[in-house]
Amino acid sequence: MLVVMEFSAPEKRPTYAGLANTTVGVISMIGPLIGAWLAIAGYDWLFAVSAFVSLLALAALHWWVKEPRFAGTVE
Question: Please, what sign has the CA dihedral across residues 11, 15, 18, 23?
Fold first, then answer.
């Protein structure tokens, strides 16, 4: 959770921290509802969607998110 502080400039940290915590809260509330709906549809769908979302997250972390300590400057 503290990596948000490394991604932002000092004057933007409150905004980034607020957005990060709000996003985690909303997803934590909606995620189990979507999971329950997929479980009702069938466990095959549940695991397929979970694997697909995990692969998307892995791709985003690998190609889109850059380590701020090695990037040089903070925007």
Answer: negative
